[in-house]
Amino acid sequence: MKTLIKTLTKTIGIQIKSKEVILVVLSKDKDGNVSQLSTSTKFNIDDHMQQEQVKQFRDQINSFFDSVKADKIGILVRNPNAKGQMAPSPISFKLEGIVQLYDKNEIELIWKTTLNAYFKKNEKKIVPEKIYQAEAFELAYYLIENK
Q: Which domain of life, per UniProt (predicted)?
């Protein structure tokens, strides 16, 4: 008797907000069913001037990526020209650089306008588990549906 093994595709969507990195992991089976995995999480850095904390952040991110073994990883690009509350912090650029140093996968940079255009024409079949994950979730969903 043969057993069928379902092939999973996994993506990680990343949103960077100030000192925090929100990571949402989605999987898609061979039947096209998409689900959010409980491995979705967030990491932060308290003091970006402390080398030990920067290394710890790097190690946490790399360990997370290694454990998930995603097919695609994407970062939601922050608008460097934004003003006021929407302006990205210098720390967020530092965190983005650390994330991009992961060398076992290509890290894609996706603009919010790309996601907006995609979701005008395509409906999400599931919603994020938590509201703060919404943008990272949309990015992971976009990546998994555009395999």
A: Bacteria
Cα separation, 68 vs 37, whole angstroms: 10
- Going by the DSSP 8-state scheme, the letter that residue 85 receives in this structure is G
DSSP state of 86: G
What is the Cα–Cα distance from 9 to 31, expressed in whole angstroms?
Answer: 11
Measured CA to CA, the distance from residue 74 to residue 11 in angstroms comes to: 8
Gap between the Cα atoms of 110 and 77, Å rounded: 6
Helix (H) or strand (E) holding 38: none
Domains of the chain: residue spans and CATH: 12-145 (3.30.420.10)
75-125 confidence digits (pLDDT tens): 999 876 666 655 678 888 899 999 999 999 999 999 999 999 999 999 998
The rounded distance, in Å, linking the Cα atoms of 124 and 112 is 16
Is 0.70 topped by the overall pTM?
yes
